[in-house]
Amino acid sequence: MIGIVIVSHSKQLALGVRELAAQMVQGKVPIAVAAGIEDPENPLGTDPIQVYEAIASVFSDDGVLVLMDLGSALLSAEMAIEFLPEAQQQKVYLCEAPLVEGAIAAVVAAALGRDIHQVMAEARGALQAKATQLGVVSRPLSLASHNTPTITNVESPTQEIRLIVSNRLGLHARPAAQFVATAAKFKSQILVRNLTRNTELVRGDSINQVTTLGVRQGHELVITATGSDADEALTALQALFANNFGEDNVALNSPPAFHHEVTPATHGELSGIAASAGVAIAPVIHYQPTHISITEYHVDEPDAEWQRLQAAIHTARQEIQAVFSQASLQIGDAEAAIFDAQLLFLEDPVLLEAAKKRILENHINAEAAWQAVVDEVAASYRTLEDSYLQERVDDVVDVGQRVLRLLAGNAAPNLHLEEPAILVATDLTPSDTARLDPTKVLGICTTSGSATSHSAIIARTLGIPAVLGVDAQVLHLADGTLMALDGESGRAWVEPESHILDLLAAKQSAWQTAQQEARATAHQPAITRDGRQISVFANIGSISDVQVAVASGAEGVGLLRTEFLYLDRTSAPTEEEQLEVYQAIAQVLDNRPLIIRTLDVGGDKPLPYLRLGFPEANPFLGWRGIRFCLDHLDLFKTQLRAILRASVGHQIKIMLPMIASVTEVRAAKVILGEVQAELNQAGISFDAAMKVGIMVEVPAAVAIADQLAAEVDFFSIGTNDLSQYVMASDRTNPRVANLVDALHPAVLRMVQQAIQAAHAAGISVGLCGELAADTLATPILLGLGLDELSVNPQAIAGVKQAIARLSIVESEAIIALALQQDSAVHVRELISTSVTPPA
Q: In the structure, how many helices (H) and strands (E) does the chain have?
C-alpha cells in the first residue's frame, strides 16, 4: 500500500488535512504528518527529522508520496530523503500538488490500488477539479493519457442509467470517494456525465474527474458501464444514490447547523475527566447519601449506651470488611487499602476511649458522643497543611456516617436502580461504586473525582463508563433527563441532539463489536502485524483472580500482590499459610510464569498489627515497600521462605517493590541468600535458579537503572507510582490529579530510559501499571520496546487485540514523535491521529 506524508508549517493544518483525507477511505491508506516545530512561541515551521520519521512510519515498497505546503517544507522534505537508505530514496516522491485537494485525490487513488505514478497524477490534477466546479475552466479534466476515457471492450454492450442526485451537497468529497471506490471494484469501464451541466463523459474511477463534474443536489447524471459485469456495476452505483450515500435524509431538508460546526462544544455539552471508557445514553438519576442529623439527649444507663455503640462499630467493621474483600478481588490491595484504613479508624483506641468517656461521664446518647469525637478527628485533619492528609477527612466522615446509620437503625443507601440510568452525584465513595450493578448503572457522572481515584478504577473494572469533575450544574438536572456520556473523551451531553446521539450510538456499537472480537481472540498469542510477539500477563491479588486471569487469556502473572495475605487479620500469615496460597496459584497457572511481589505495605498501607508509632506527613514518600521489609526481617524472611518452597516445579520469580538504590537490592539478595542456605541445610527443595527482579517506580531507580540492571534478572515498571513521583503530584488529590498522567512525555522518557538500560544489560522489562491496560497507549508501549505487559484480567482481551492491529515499525515512529510533545494531551492527540487500521 502506498504511503502518504503531509508536510506543513502548521501542525493543526496538517492534522486537519489528514483527518479529512483519512475519512475519504475509512483509514485504509497509511497517512503520516510532519508539521510544526517544538517552539511554543513560534510553532510554525518544518523539521527534516520529523519528515524523515514520518516517511519511515508509512514506508512501503509500493512507494511514498510526500505533499508539502510551501517554502521550507520542500527543503525539509528534500533533506529528509537524504537520511533514508539509498534503496528507499528511489521510492519516495515529492509532489507539488495542492495540499488539501492533492491529499484527498492521492488517498482515494491509493486506496483503489493505483501505482505511485497514477497516484501522483491524480494529486497533481486535483486543483483543476476545483477550478472546473467554479467555472474557471469549461473543459473536462484530462490529466494524462491513462485518465482519458476510452472504450476498452467494444465487444461488450454498453449499459446506461440516469439518476437524479438528492444529496444536499451533491457529490461532495465523501460521496465522490464512495462513487469512485465502488466503480473501481468492477472490471467494466464506468463513465459518468453531468447532463444538467452538459459536461463530457469522464472516468468513474478517477476522483478528480468525478469531482470536476460539479454535481449538486437535483442534477441529473448519466452513468454508463461497458464490460462483463456492467449490470452489477450499475446496480451497485444506483444503490449508493438510492441510499443518499449513507447521509441523513433529515439533514437534506434543513439548513446545516453551522453554529455547531464552528463552536468548540455542542449545545448541552459538559467537559470533564475521562475516567472509564465507553458510551452511555440513558436518563439521569441522582444519588445523594442521606446525612444523618444527631440530637444530643440525657441517658440514665450510660453503660448500656456504650454497649450499643460498640455493637454498631462491630457491625460497621463487618460491613467494611465485606466491601474490602470485594474490592481486593476487583482492584487489588493497593486501591483497596482505603477500606483497610477505615477498619483501622474503627479500632483506634484513642477515638474509642474518647467516645466512651463522653458517654459515661456526661451521660449522653451514643450518637451524640460518636459524632463529637468524629468531628474532632475530622477537624484535626482539616488543619493539616498536607493535602493528602486533608483528604482523609472523607474517609473519617464516611466511617462516621456508617456507624451513625447503624445506631439509627437505617438500612444501607439504596443504589439498586429499577431501570437503567446514568448515576449523577457530587462524588461516589469506593464502597458505593463497588456495589453498583453494571446492568442498571450504565454510566457515572460526578462533579468531583479523578481518573486515578479508587472509584474510577472500580468503575473501569466493572466496565461502567464514567466522566468525572463536570460542572456543578449537572446536579440541578431533574431525574429522567436524557444524558449521553463518552468516558473515553471525558464529555457528557444533556438532552443531546440527534446527530450527537447518532455519533455516540455508532461509537457504542463499534466498541461493543470490538469487545466481542477481543474476547474471541483473547487466548491467542499477541503478535504485531510485523511478527513481534508481546507477552500479556495479569495483575492479580487472590486465588480467585488467577482463575479469572487464565480464563481471560493471561499468559502468566506479571504481578501477584501479596498484601491480601497480610490484611484483614490480627497477625502476619505464617510460612505454611503463604506456601499453600502460592502453590495453589502456581497450580492454576499450569507452568505459566508467576511473578510474586514481596510485601508492599507501610506508609499509606499500614498493617493493623504493625503500628508505625508515629504519623507520616507524606506516606507516599515514607516507610513502605522494600524499606519496610528490610526493617522487618522476620516478616521478610518468612515470605521469602514460602516463595522459595513454592518454586519447585513452577515458573516463579521474586520481585522487590519500591527500590530506590543498589544498596537495597544487594541487602535483599543477601537475605534471600541466607534463606536459601537455611533451606539447603534443612534439606528443603527450591528452585535455585529462580529469577529476581525489581519494580521500577521511583525516579531514583530510573536514574541508576544501568546499575540496578546489573544486579537483577528483570525490571517491571510501575507507572502508577512512577507517574506521581515524576510529576510531584498526589494521584488521590483532585486538584493535581490531571498532572498524574503516565502519557506525559516526562514519564515516557523515564520509562524509555529504564527500558534501554534493561535491554543494554540483556534483561527483560515489563510494565504493570494502569497504563498497560489503556489500549490508546499500546502503540506507545510497543514503540518503547517493552517485552511484556501485565494488566487486570478484564483488560487482557482488549490489549491483545490492540497489539495485533499494530506494527513495531509504526509504533516506533509514533513514540519518536510522542517523546517530543509538550504534554500528555498532545501525546494522546498524536496517537489518535497516527494509528491507522491495517489495510
A: 34, 25
By C-alpha distance, which of 317, 291, 293, 307 is closest to 366? 307
* Residue 538, all three cell numbers: 495479569
- For residue 287, which amino acid is it? Y
Distances in whole angstroms, Cα of residue 753 to Cα of each of 611, 756, 760, 788 = 37, 5, 11, 16
58-to-106, 148, 755, 811 alpha-carbon distances in Å: 14, 31, 25, 11
Dmax of the chain from CA atoms?
112
Tens of pLDDT, residue by residue over 3-40, are: 999 999 888 888 888 888 887 787 789 999 999 887 77
Among this protein's residues, is 95 annotated catalytic?
no
Q: Is 454 an annotated catalytic residue? A: yes
CA 530 to chain centre: 23
pTM for the structure as a whole: 0.50
**Residues 468/457, Cβ–Cβ less than 8 Å:** no
Look at 106-115, 124-133, 796-805 and tell me which has the smallest mean pLDDT.
124-133
- Asked if residue 440 lies in contact with residue 287, where contact means CB atoms within 8 angstroms, the answer is no
Which residues are CB-neighbours of 304 under 8 A, at least 6 positions away? none
- From the candidates 454, 632, 650, 744, which is the catalytic residue? 454
Gap between the terminal Cα atoms of the chain: 8
State the virtual CA torsion across 117, 120, 122, 125 in degrees, nearest 10: -130
* CA–CA gap between residue 182 and residue 188 (Å, rounded): 12
d(CA 732, CA 720): 11
3-state secondary structure of 30: coil
Convert the pLDDT of each residue in 319-343 to its tens digit.
887 777 666 555 544 455 567 667 7
Point out the catalytic residue in the list 95, 445, 629, 768.
768
- Rounded Cα gap, residues 675 and 637, in angstroms: 7
Angle between helices 48-58 and 72-83 (to 10 degrees): 60
Across the range 183-196, mean pLDDT stands at 88
